[in-house]
Design a protein that fits this description.
Elements lengths: L1 H4 L4 H8 L5 E5 L5 H14 L7 E5 L2 H14 L6 E4 H12 L10 E2 L2 H14 L9 H13 L14 H19 L2 E2 L1 H14 L1 H10 L2 E4 L7 H9 L6 E6 L14 H4 L1 H4 L4 E5 L7 H11 L21 E7 H17 L8 E5 L5 H11 L3 E3 L9 H14 L4 H8 L8 H14 L3 H6 L9 H19 L5 H11 L2 H7 L3 H27 L4 H10 L13 E5 L8 E6 L16 H15 L2 E15 L2 E4 L15 E4 L47 H4 L20 E4 L3 E9 L6 E6 L3 E6 L6 E2 L3
Parallel strand pairs: 1-7, 1-8, 2-3, 2-6, 4-5, 6-7, 9-14, 9-16, 10-12, 10-13, 11-12, 13-14
Antiparallel strand pairs: 14-15, 17-18, 17-21, 18-19, 19-20
Helix pairs in contact: 2-3, 3-4, 5-9, 6-8, 7-8, 9-11, 14-26, 15-16, 17-18, 17-21, 17-22, 22-24
The protein binds a DNA duplex through helix 4, helix 5 and helix 9.
Length: 760
DNA sequence: ACGAATTTGATTTTT
DNA sequence: TCAAATTCGT
């Protein structure tokens, strides 16, 4: 009991001790929010609240699993339900979906799947799109759903041609989705909100079941999420929201900052706690952030403070162009690493748009500095993975026409465009699914004998897969891969790319096996559960945090993270307030928050920069410094003009921040290296061929994933000796990237790999 | 049905 | 500029 409150400040303690009634935790950056939330859950359980009655909702899987783990370590053995909003929505719809006309075995379409459906509908309904792209139309539908405007409620506005299109296509799209027993991401929330609204008994039942609801990042909730939360907090109004209006950066995705601004109005008896002490950044960094964000109007007054040291002044540099900017930063990072003051992983470079990473990447590569980009390329989104999963989806839900489309002719089996067209017509005419239409392939007019036969054997395969559904997922996917001829086609292809596709498919099989093992232990397995995971959990959720590499990412991706040294680049008009956002006040404020979020990620050092000339879409253009720079305490910034050649930034001996080691800064020149810097010794420490010999004998002995560490020399029976260059995840999810002497770089899921530490 | 050629259009992207 | 998406040609 006492231990729970140890090392908490006054405000944190207040939040942790709050039990009944609504609670709003306004948590500034670096204020120990997660600690407060997890400790509060532990405290609730100590007060006799049953763990089944607690529901914690997050936006990302990463946040959910972090919270889950931290609660677990505080109160072992207690099963609190921590979930993303969308997974929660999916779970509710599996139970109560019939109330909104949804079959329980529904499929969840990702963005590209639902875009596919939309295009179909636009075509089938012969809707004049008047030059609006499907993406644009989909965006409008999504926005409507986020605002909880249903297809029936949607009304076209006279002044908006786009809304006229939406008014036509939205109902048709929604009908098509329901027919296919499918939902898109937005539906997961909208359907739940709607069923809670229309079914008072269900609402009451769930309100009772989830007595204590916690929400993370409340500033990012949209209307649908707001309504869900509200509905779960009528009879038991114990909603605890944590968030920070100043970090609301997803307005463009439907997040409504009003939710957090008006929480107190929505829940009159709310207890408000402000977490204002920052444990992350130096005073100078915090001051810059604070002064900038003070220019926003839609916010809650907070006064951030820190006991940390003053630290170095925040630097603002003007470079001549982007290559000098990137080169200067890369060189500085290289020097700090080489001088031993910093590790590569201490550094992060943030930018507004992905396109800005290019020059930075080039410069880092030239300087021989290892880096990683947090990318959006997700494992389950890869073509081959989606292809294989489509068979499973269809076996699970025979109405899933998108899955049919995707799988019916991949690998190619002689069912071409013409046959599909006839099939479509038939299905449309008789109102059946494509799969059911295919069952009657031989009686469809115009269908060639060849195509009909192919279709019938395809249907047979799907039926067989469906009959396996109660088996292990591994068996299901294994069957698909073999009997569909998918792996055969890849094996026989000479294409290099197909080779890696094959590997990915094998990784999928491994992933399925891992899922089977886990569900054996904890229950809740089966094909549908597995599919749901592929739809709602993407692999980028655990990127390699342990890798000793410089991190490059967009500002949006930085939320929740921190780095000792941060470079914020391209602070230019039209880029950081982005040109598409700066016209309206609302948009401009969000851009400012984006800058605020970026700045407050920095622990010890922050450098902001802009250039005078930027190459943009092929055009060289004069760049104007961001207006945000004028809103910062300029007299406290260390301003540097990189035109002068002999600058010595660290000539003065600044107070170094806080408890940290006082390190010596190299006196770095800002001018760009004239010749490429020497490459890092990547292959250093590799095992010799002699050490390899013993490797194979360890092949089947189990090794705990925890024995592996960064930089460790390892041996693989197939690929030989290598060195671990990156590590991520923990337990059975622990993954490693290995640089092999002979076989290049490869990634492994450690529990399943044959990777072993090298002996000797 | 595939690869080449060309057209287009271009923030951010938790799910 | 440049990459993705569509169309074209075989």
């Amino acid at each position: 009991m006492t231990s729970l409150l140890e090392n908490l400040n006054e405000a944190q303690r207040e939040a942790v001790l709050h039990v009944d009634g609504p609670l709003l935790i306004l948590a500034g950056p670096g204020s120990g929010k997660t600690r407060v939330v997890t400790h509060r859950v532990a405290h609730l359980l100590e007060q006799g609240v049953r763990s089944r009655q607690v529901l914690a909702l997050t936006f990302t899987n990463k946040a959910a699993s972090e919270m889950r783990n931290r609660i677990q370590s505080l109160v072992p053995g207690e099963a609190v339900w921590v979930s993303t909003f969308h997974r929660f929505g999916a779970r509710m719809l599996r139970e109560h979906g019939e109330l909104v006309g949804l079959a329980p075995n529904f499929t969840i379409y990702d963005t590209s799947d639902s875009r596919q459906v939309l295009k179909r509908v636009l075509e089938a309904e012969r809707i004049h799109v008047m030059g609006y792209s499907p993406d644009r139309i989909a965006g409008a539908i999504s926005a409507a759903k986020n605002k909880l405007i249903t297809a029936d409620d949607y009304k076209a506005r006279r002044d908006s041609p786009l809304s006229e299109i939406v008014a036509q296509v939205y109902p048709a799209y929604q009908q098509r989705m329901l027919q296919s027993a499918a939902v898109d991401f937005d539906d997961l929330l909208m359907h739940v909100a709607s069923l809670l609204y229309h079914n008072p008994e269900v609402r009451a039942q769930l309100d009772d079941r989830f007595r204590y609801v916690l929400v993370d990042e409340y500033q990012d909730t949209n209307k649908a999420q707001y309504v869900i939360l509200k509905a779960l907090s009528v009879d038991h109004p114990n909603l605890a929201a944590t968030g920070d209006p100043d970090q609301s950066i997803y307005g463009w995705r439907g997040a409504d900052i009003t939710n957090i601004l008006e929480f107190e109005r929505d829940f009159p008896q709310v207890h408000v706690v402000r977490l204002e002490q920052n444990y992350r950044s130096t005073k100078s960094i915090l001051r810059v952030a604070d002064e900038l964000i003070a220019h926003n109007t839609r916010r809650k007054q907070k006064s951030l403070f820190t006991d940390n040291g003053e630290g170095r002044p925040v630097r603002l540099i003007a470079y001549a162009d982007q290559d000098l900017e990137a080169g200067g930063i890369a060189e500085e990072i290289r020097a700090a690493i080489e001088g031993g003051q910093r590790r590569a992983s201490d550094f992060a470079v943030f930018y507004r748009t992905n396109a800005l990473s290019r020059s930075m990447e080039r410069a880092l590569r030239a300087a021989g500095v290892p880096y990683q980009m947090v990318r959006g390329q997700e494992f389950y989104g890869r073509k081959e993975i989606k292809d294989v999963l489509a068979y499973c989806q269809l076996a699970n839900n025979s109405h899933d026409d998108v899955a049919f489309d995707r799988s019916v002719n991949s690998p190619t089996r002689g069912v071409g465009k013409k046959s599909i067209e006839r099939l479509n017509l038939h299905a449309y005419r008789y109102g059946t699914s494509l799969l059911d239409a295919a069952r009657q392939a031989d009686s469809i007019e115009g269908m060639t004998k060849r195509a009909a036969n192919s279709l019938l054997s395809y249907v047979k395969l799907i039926d067989e897969v469906a009959s396996l559904a109660s088996d292990s997922v591994e068996a299901v996917i294994g069957t698909v891969i073999e009997k569909s001829g998918y792996s055969k086609a890849l094996r026989e292809s000479g294409d290099e790319e197909d080779q890696s596709r094959l590997e990915n498919i094998e990784e999928l099989l491994t992933d399925a096996r891992q899922f089977d093992e886990q569900s054996e232990e904890f229950g809740d397995g089966g094909l549908e559960a597995y599919l749901e995971r592929t739809w709602l959990v993407n692999e980028t959720d655990d990127w390699e945090t342990e890798a000793d590499k410089v991190t490059l990412m967009t500002l949006h991706a930085t939320k929740g993270l921190e780095f000792p040294v941060v470079y914020l680049i391209a602070l230019e008009d039209g880029i950081l307030p982005h040109e598409r956002s700066r016209d309206n006040a609302e948009g401009l404020e969000e851009e400012r928050r984006l800058a605020f979020v970026g700045i407050t990620r920095a622990k010890e050092q922050l450098q902001m920069s802009y250039v005078r000339m930027r190459e943009y879409r092929g055009q060289r253009r004069m760049a104007i410094p961001s207006s945000f720079l004028m809103e910062m305490p300029r007299e406290q910034l260390e301003m540097v003009d990189a035109r002068s050649d002999d600058l010595d930034f660290y000539a003065d001996d600044y107070d170094t921040y806080g408890v940290d080691e006082q390190y010596e800064e190299p006196s770095t020149q800002i001018d760009v290296p004239k010749s490429p810097a020497p490459k890092l010794p990547v292959a250093a420490g590799l095992t010799t061929a002699a050490q390899l010999a013993g490797g194979k004998s360890t092949k089947h002995s189990k090794v705990s994933p925890d024995v592996f560490s960064l930089g460790m020399t390892v041996v693989h029976p197939e690929f030989g000796p290598g060195k671990i260059t990156a590590l991520g995840g923990s337990g059975s999810a622990r993954k490693a990237t290995v640089q092999f002497a002979a076989a290049g770089e490869r990634r492994f899921v450690l529990v399943h790999s044959q990777l072993r530490p090298a002996q000797g």
